[in-house]
Design goal:
By secondary structure, the protein is of the alpha/beta class. The chain has 10 helices and 10 strands.
């Protein structure tokens, strides 16, 4: 299943400046994609158009071969999940289990089916032992997991996360990325709105850069951070592993620290 924007332009006011100009981009099943760019570049607007919170000035949104441009956010929530940067803003039920059950219940599923779905979603997100707790009292990482479990329970095909790793330590980031990879392996498409270039380079299959109201780059991390490009002109920082890799003979591309260490050990053995 393919979700795509075709020649989309958007402005918030009729006579205001264009925020997006002729944007065409698609998302394939099972991808883990980083959507990045400077603050105000339009990346959040892209996600709002994808979810139906905004309608394009021109162009179309398509899913599975259907034009869904005029579908509202409620209709799209059947297959698109969204995790806010502050996930407690989307939580209002008294327990984790009831929070995750809310979506399937609104879909009209019977109670036995709902409980089975919720149990599976809590298991997938490692929240089974937190099901009776108040969602908003949890850590930010666990709140994210509750929001992700809610998306799983809704049978979402796409999951958008807004700056999911900001304010998290290394262990929390690792746990989140492992969960997202497991969802991608099951066929879910995950879109990370992020400034975290270490995550983008080390864990995402694709990076999309929004700049000057357009898609400035759409490709692999290795292509983005190659010495032929200047990602800093788009407000991006180089991942630590990439910078370290360039200090080694041959300037190998190192998308993560593990790859850098392997390259470093190879150089050391050959000395």
């Amino acid at each position: 299943m393919n979700l795509s924007l075709h020649d989309v332009s958007f402005r918030y006011k009729d006579k205001g400046p264009d925020i997006l100009e002729h944007v065409t981009v698609s998302f394939q099943q099972g991808e883990l994609v980083a959507l990045t760019g400077r603050n105000g570049s339009g990346k959040t607007t892209i996600t709002r158009i994808i979810t139906g919170l905004e309608k394009p000035k021109s162009g179309s949104v398509e899913w599975d071969g259907k034009d869904i441009t005029m579908w509202d956010a409620a209709e799209r929530s059947r297959f698109i999940g969204y995790v806010f940067q502050q996930p407690d803003r989307q939580m209002f039920m008294p327990t984790v289990r009831e929070e995750v059950a809310f979506g399937p219940r609104q879909q009209g599923k019977n109670e036995a089916e709902i409980q089975a779905i919720v149990t599976e979603a809590l298991k997938a997100t490692d929240l089974a032992d937190r099901e009776t707790e108040y969602p908003r009292s949890l850590s930010r990482g666990d709140k994210q997991r509750v929001a992700i479990a809610s998306a799983i329970a809704m049978s979402s095909k796409y999951l958008i996360l807004d700056e999911p790793t900001s304010g998290q330590d290394g262990r929390e980031k690792k746990n989140l990325i492992e969960l997202l990879h497991s969802l991608c392996q099951k066929g879910m498409t995950v879109i990370l709105v992020t400034h975290d270039m270490d995550i983008a380079a080390g864990d995402c299959s694709r990076i999309i850069v929004v700049a000057d109201h357009k898609i400035a780059f759409d490709g692999t991390a290795e292509a983005l951070f190659s010495q032929d490009r200047k990602p800093e002109s788009w407000g991006l920082t180089y991942p630590v592993s990439v910078v370290l890799g360039r200090t080694l003979p041959g300037n190998p591309y190192c998308g993560d620290i593990e790859t850098f260490m392997e390259c470093y050990e190879k150089v050391r053995r050959n000395q």
